[in-house]
Amino acid sequence: MAFKDLREFVEFLEKRGELIRVTEEVDPELEITEITDRVSKAYGPALLFENVKGSNFPLLINGFGSEERMALSLRVDSLDDIAQEIIDLLDIADNVPSSMLDKVKILPKLAQLASYIPKTIKTGPCQEVVDYEPALSKFPILKCWPEDAGKFITLPHIYTKNPTNGKRNAGMYRLQVFDDKTTGMHWHTHHDGAENYRMHCEMGKPTEVAVVLGGDPAITYAATAPLPKDIDELMFAGFLRKKPVELVKCKTIDMEVPADAEIVIEGYVDPEERRIEGPFGDHTGYYSLAGEYPVFHVTCITHRKEPIYPTTIVGQPPQEDCYMALATERIFLPLLKFQFPEIIDMHLPMEGVFHNCVFVSIKKTFPGHARKIMSSLWGMGQMMFAKFIIVVDEDVNVHNTSEVLWKVFNNVDPRRDTMIIDGPLDVLDHSAPRALLGSKMGIDATKKWKSEGHDREWPKDIVMSDDIKNLVDQKWSKYGID
After folding, report:
1. Which residues 6+ apart lie within 8 Å of 351 measured at CB?
2. 3-octaprenyl-4-hydroxybenzoate carboxy-lyase-like N-terminal domain location, by residue (predicted)?
């Protein structure tokens, strides 16, 4: 059953002992970050700060800050449960019904899919208060790190529309607060929000934007999901929550937003205006550099009577965003396996901060198979940003970084088993010779065949016989030897 809104999620976490209310006064400038960073690295609870200096509104942070809470936010026991649902849907796509009986069998699933389409209602809690003279300063917006250029809104879902077909897009981009009515708009050039902005610019039109904070956590997560172009993030949110997202029309722009959100900031981005934004302490663990970005002008703010301000910090992992990335890894693995059945499993280690490194295990069936997978993954949406792709055999646990590195250090001949190409990189990659473009490396850490140029016999892994394993299990378990 879906969470109706953010506060229902807060109550749920509190009942499970996954949230602490903090009543002591705390400063949104740096202090909250230091507290949360320590809690994150100790794998601690969500925090609801109820007495934030300079604001009358409570602040929620670290709500997604563990694998368990990430799963709870999507109302599943395990993130792999969602992957299985996607596999079931892909099974429909891969098995076109050939008879009337087969068609009848899939009707319930098709009807269920149709039920996830968002629906518009007349009014919603997010518009209990309507402020046509808005002031961002009334919210407890964080300055996260000492060299940040200012305060940043860090957990928004940001809505734009394609000006030619009217299709909605939701993404998550940081907003540097310049003053009460303007912010930066950190649209990454490869993302759909930036593409909608460029299309508006070509027409000489402002881009209408709705910035939404809160609502069912599934909606917040959906804004981060790497969906194919023109797939509605709110329909995906409906799939995750098994209930359609209810929308209300904005007051000053032609946009619909989740009715149960906590805060909605309406406005527009001018096609000509740009301003220096940043630096910002980013999820890479480094400060992303200052640069020119579009400017967002606030025309109206609506919110609940007593809204909760949801936010996050990013920095050296582990942080809350690592678990959102883990959700993406598990949820979207079936889509990769659907296109590449030889893929057994995949892992994005947090040391690679989502996009810099990919571990993938495959069932190898022909010479050069690992290189085929590397090339294929670099052609898959946001996988194009992966600087390192490491391919291992099917029996390797890609979630065990030590095991993967053991295979790399022992199975790889650097000249034969590495592949370096040039291509696009994430805008946050500071190591590239120039912004957005650089090199990537693929590493084939699979066992090598003679047909791949390995003339010597490949050694066997050391494995104990099953009868001795069973003997020790039975005879020595009483001594705690498992």
Report:
1. 317, 357, 401
2. 10-84
Report the catalytic residues.
282
Shared domain check, 157 and 236: yes
Closest alpha carbon to 283 in 310, 323, 223: 323
Q: Which of 256, 239, 296 is nearest to 126 (CA)?
A: 256
Average pLDDT, integer, range 10-19: 97
- Give the pLDDT of residue 221: 96
Q: How many folded domains does the chain comprise?
A: 2
The CATH number given to whatever domain includes residue 357 is 3.40.1670.10
Contact 381, 358 (CB under 8 A): no
Task: Say if residues 121 and 247 touch (Cβ distance below 8 Å).
Answer: yes
Q: What would the pLDDT profile of 212-226 be if each residue is shown by its tens digit?
A: 999 999 999 999 998
In CATH, what number is assigned to the domain containing residue 53?
2.30.110.10
Handedness of CA 360, 361, 362, 367 (dihedral sign): positive
- What is the enclosing helix (H) or strand (E) of 375? helix 369-378
Give strand ranges (E) for 42-108: 46-49, 59-61
pTM of the model: 0.90
Contacts of 221 (CB under 8 A, 6+ apart): 64, 73, 74, 237, 240, 324, 327
> Would you put residue 249 in left (φ > 0), alpha (ψ -120 to 50) or beta?
beta
Domain limits for position 398: 340-452
Q: Is residue 334 part of a domain?
A: no
